[in-house]
Amino acid sequence: MKSILICGGLLSYGIPDFRLPRDILDGALQKILDLGIEVHLGKELGKDITLDELKEKYDAVLLCFGANVSSKMNIEGEDLERSLWRK
Asked: What is the pTM of this model?
């Protein structure tokens, strides 16, 4: 059986490029894919796939849950033009 990696996009969209350059991230993700790990994006546990289905199909599973909804911190300056907050 194969292993499966289900991952979200926080590293891609939640961390500014000046902190984690996109080419560095892309290279790291490509190394994961080169190992033959199967990646499924945009899946909702319990809706698109169940834990029982994962247990039946794979020997090893890594579930990485991202934040579905971002929220402001309600601090001074977060609405400034150069703020990196995103909806």
From this structure: 0.53
